[in-house]
Amino acid sequence: MKIAIVRGKYLNKYEMQYYEPLVRKHKLVGFGSLSPIHSKFAFPVVKLPSPMDLPNFPYKMPILNRLFIDAQYLFGLEGKLRGFDIAHSAETYMHFTQQCLNAKKKGYVKRVVVTVSENIPFANEGIWGRKRFKKRALAEVDHFVAISQRAKEALILEGCPEEKITVIGHHIDTKKFKIPNSKFQINSKSQIPNSKTIKILFVGRMGWSKGVYEVIFSAKKLLSDPDLKNYSLNFTLVGEGKEKKKILELEKRLGIEKWITHKVVPYEKMPEEYQKADIFLAPSLITRYWQEQFGMVLIEAMACGLPIVTSLSGAIEEVVGEAAVKVQPGDFYSLTQAIKKFILNPKARIEYGKKARERAVNYFDIKIGAKKLEEVYRKVLV
Rounded to an integer, what distance in angstroms lies between the CA atom of residue 155 and that of residue 41? Predict the structure, then answer.
């Protein structure tokens, strides 16, 4: 099969992990903007100009989205899809999905598959033209890949026939994201260590929707807890975002900045960050317009055998199952108590780390995802 993976500016290594094993049997070509998130993959990449490539300026995205309905437009994409069996794009409202459908209508490509992350029905319809985009996609796309059961249910509520949807979550390379040899092995029968130095990790966008403020509030509570006075607690926050300046100011205001480290880490180095940690946090929030769509960082942390404290936001529960402690979104008090229990109970950290690793290997390894994806491609070409 000859497959075009169309992601524009958002072409990235995180998602493409479980596509790459397919290059052994099929011809894959990625289509990105001139400046995608990542450029090097196991398959070649065609870069096309996009409004998304413009330098940042005030109100960039609101302006571009209103001019283009959706700024994820790739100039010349339709012609470049000539001769492909499948064009696989993302989201019903993105402009390059419409371009893939245009290419199909012209006979350039046989089928169009679309991955959908959105799990809130009728979301992303506030901009003029997007309802039309979504309506056409629901009618003309050959098959949808929903990354969660919630995304599938949202599609069904919007009018998509259930038989046109397959749920395939994100998948990662569990040979890269793994438990380090230098660390206590969760399958070992040796004595459980009780180190007084605890490293707590958060990975994600520095935005309030990811629960980063709750992480900071919990850090303050834990660092001043008399029950933990004999522990050395260190917090690492990996990521960037528009709230970072305010986060740094808050840390100083609370007097905890020396216990918190901020980092930006290349994706290929991320396994090392997880492997150095003792506890992982992902306390995403819920709003009217957004809830956690999947949580790639969760399966990365799970694969590295980390005990996880997360929240009941969006698809998180179906991702982690019983392999994590879950608290209510926006509840820094419950978050603090859950972290504290892990700090004081090294046996629980080991037990949850073991469950997390097993779940990651059994459900989220790239070989599993690639097999499911290939089945979808074969199905739509019948």
Answer: 30
**pLDDT at position 190, please?**
47
Q: What confidence score (pLDDT) does residue 180 get?
A: 82
> Which fold would CATH assign to domain 2-171+365-381?
Rossmann fold (3.40.50)
Q: Which residues does residue 280 pair with via DSSP β-bridges, in sequence order?
A: 201, 308
What's the mean pLDDT in 37-55? Answer: 96
**197-363 CATH:** 3.40.50.2000
Diameter of the chain by CA atoms?
Answer: 70
Strands, sheet with 325-327, edge to edge from the N-terminal-most edge strand = 260-263, 232-238, 197-203, 279-282, 308-311, 325-327
Q: What is the pLDDT of residue 183?
A: 59
Of 35, 118, 121, 31, nearest to 79 (Cα)? 31
Q: Is the distance from CB of 373 to CB of 18 less than 8 angstroms?
A: yes
Spell 308-336 as b/e; 16+ CB within 10 A means b: bbbbbbbbbbebbeebbbbbebbbbebbb
pLDDT, tens only, 214-245: 999 999 999 999 999 999 999 999 999 999 99
Task: Return d(Cα 28, Cα 35) in angstroms, integer.
Answer: 19
With a cut of 80, say whether residue 194 has pLDDT above it. no
Give the Cα separation of 130 and 71 in Å (integer). 11
Percent of the chain with pLDDT over 70: 96
For residue 181, give Cα distances in angstroms to 176, 271, 272, 299, 349: 12, 13, 12, 19, 17
**Residue in this structure with the two tokens 């989201």, named with its chain if needed:** 91
Q: Is the pLDDT of residue 184 over 70?
A: no
Q: Indicate whether 90 pLDDT > 60.
A: yes
Ordered by start, the domain boundaries in the chain are 2-171+365-381, 197-363
pLDDT at 193: 59
DSSP code for 147: S
Q: Would you say how long the chain is, in residues?
A: 382
DSSP-based three-state secondary structure for 131: helix
Q: Which candidate, 9, 191, 171, places its Cα nearest to that of 90?
A: 9
